[in-house]
Structures are given as C-alpha cells and as structure tokens.
Design a protein that fits this description.
Largest sheet: 2 strands, antiparallel
Number of domains: 2
Distance between the termini: 16 Å
Radius of gyration: 18 Å
CATH superfamily of the largest domain: GntR ligand-binding domain-like
Structural class: mainly alpha
Order of helices and strands: HHHEEHHHHHHH
C-alpha cells in the first residue's frame, strides 16, 4: 500500500504541486508513464480535485503532456529534443548570468551565496535530492536577478521540460563534482560582477549538462524498459 503523506489543508494545493513536481524530477513518476489519479490520490492522501489542479499546472509548465484518450503523461524527450532544448536553454542561462552580474542587488547576491553554501553541505552529505532542490533555487535566483520578466517566463517554460534529465546527470559522481565546481566559479564571477565571464560559465554549464544527458541516452540509461510499468493505469 502506498505511503500516505499527510498534507495540511492550509497549503494543500502548493504541497500537492510540489510533491508531484519532485516525483517527476526524481523519476518516481518515470518519463513516458501515465499519472494514475487513483494511485496518486492514495499516495498523497488527497482527493482528485487538488490533484487534477496540480496536474493542469504541471502541464502548463511543460512537465506533463495532456494527451487525448490517454490522460496526463510525464514528458518524455528524444535526443533531438534535448539538443534543441539545450541550445536555447544555454543561451537563456548565459543571458541571465550576464544581466544578473550587472543588475543584482547586494541582498540578492547574499541570498545566492547562502544558497551556495547550503548546496555545498548537501553535496558533502551526498544528498542529491536536497542538492538538486537548492541548485534549482540558485538558477532561479540568478534568472530573477537578471530583472527581465520576459526572459524569466521563457526560461521557466523551457527549463521545466528537462528537469528530470538534469537531475539524472548528478547521479554520476564525476559529473556531480564538475557541476559543483562550476557553481563555485559562477559565484566568483557574480561577486566580481564580471558579466562576460558569468555568461560564459553558465553557457558552458548548460552545454556540459546537455552532453551528459546525451551520454546517458547513448548508453541506454535514460528510459529503462520498465518505464511504463510505474504508476500504470
């Protein structure tokens, strides 16, 4: 029987949305599998109404595809999708860094530094779930510090579709250490307000993510054969 997770009524909607997003990112709901409402309601201890609301928001964010006669399906990308998506995402991350270095406030910079130290602690504990959550907050904070709402909305729409794949790359110890080092370089460039350097670091960071994901594809490690078995209808 699925574990029941108690959710407070005051923040039911946000908690269901956050829990589902985590399940999609971390592969509890594998790419290409159907979001079984009965199973998810039992697991989360909620009715279908807040669950369906959360699924609709995830679909708007690009993490779920709503297909006729099939329902909600966790997004499943091809190699071509990855190449095309990261080509745009690298440019958006780079632009975010360039603008953030020029426009960031002292308060925003202090918050990113605090998040970086928390992320380092998660890395030392090898707590991948916590690490990835804080990592995402850092990238979001940089994007916000860029001060361009059009950039932010475009970035969020594209980035959400590759979250589960980005999470997978850190399961390789060598690549995880490289990503951690790149984040340290980002912080140095941000502190120096070096917009060109920060843009270059973030662009390369995304290109390295793309290459790591493509390696997983070519090794047959992205979508295991039993993907459709999880949370099946």
């Amino acid at each position: 029987m699925a574990e029941i997770i108690e959710l407070s009524r005051s923040s039911l909607h946000d908690q269901v949305l956050a829990r589902l997003r985590t399940m999609l990112v971390e592969g509890t709901i594998p790419p290409g599998s159907k979001l079984n409402e009965r199973e998810l309601c039992a697991r989360l201890g909620v009715s279908r109404t807040p669950l369906r609301e959360a699924i609709k928001l995830l679909a708007l964010g690009g993490m779920v595809d709503l297909l006729p006669n099939r329902g909600a399906i966790a997004v499943k990308l091809t190699e071509a999708d990855v190449i095309n998506t990261f080509e745009v995402l690298a440019a958006l991350e780079g632009l975010s860094g360039e603008l953030a270095a020029k426009r960031i406030t002292d308060e925003e910079r202090a918050e990113i530094r605090a998040l970086h130290y928390d992320m380092m602690a998660s890395f030392e504990r090898r707590d991948l779930s916590c690490y990835y959550r804080i990592n995402a907050q850092i990238h979001t904070a940089l994007n916000t510090a860029a001060g361009n709402p059009v950039l932010t909305s475009t970035y969020q729409a594209i980035n959400s579709r590759v979250q589960s794949l980005r999470f997978r790359t850190n399961q390789n110890e060598k690549k995880w250490k490289r990503a951690m080092n790149e984040h340290s370089l980002m912080l140095e460039a941000l502190d120096a307000r070096d917009s060109d350097r920060l843009r270059a670091i973030l662009t390369e960071h995304m290109q390295n993510k793309r290459d790591s994901i493509l390696e997983l594809f070519r090794a047959g490690q992205v979508y295991p054969d039993n993907t459709e078995a999880a949370l099946k209808a």
